[in-house]
Amino acid sequence: MHKKKILTKILALKGHQKQEIEIEFKKISDIVDYEKSKLEQLELDYSKMMDDFHKKSADGSMSIDGINSFHANFEYIGTQISNQQKVIARCNKELVDIKNLLLNAHKDEKVFEILTEKEVKKEKKEVADREQKDNDFFAISRKMYL
Predict the structure, then answer these.
(1) How many structural domains compose the chain?
(2) Which of 58, 97, 135, 146 is the most exposed place for a label (fewest CB within 10 A)?
């Protein structure tokens, strides 16, 4: 009985730990999605600026200052994209780490579920064996006195 109680408490603790890790996983997953949307927006801005540059270049209406301005903007957005890609890579690594923690937490919880089930079965078998012993004893006792 004592072992079953301990296993039940450990199982509850493992369940809570798993829930906390699931919440953390969801939070990091949302962050990754947000950071990816920021990257997509930067890439879209870069693409629009590239289209503007090509249109103005084709018209031949760009001055040296205009070209320098586009160049500076391209460098800036390129740096922003590079930084954003690094942020996403770091977030993805965190996501993989949390996913591994979640997998381990799930395994731990499953192990303790199995141990608890085994203990419950063992306890039921002991109770059934005791009852059978008592029944056998009463049956033998009746035969002896009859």
Answers:
(1) 1
(2) 146
DSSP run (H or E) holding 63: none
Of the candidates 19, 30, 31, 8, which has an alpha carbon nearest to the alpha carbon of residue 102? 19
Does some domain include residue 43? yes
The 10s digit of each residue's pLDDT in 30-41 is: 999 999 999 999
Q: What is the pLDDT of residues 1-20, one digit of tens each?
A: 588 788 888 888 888 999 99
Closest CA to 52 of 37, 67, 42: 67
Residue (of 12, 13, 33, 17) closest to 102 by Cα position = 17
| Integer Cα distance of 117 and 124 in angstroms | 11
In a domain, 139, yes or no: no
89: containing domain: 2-115
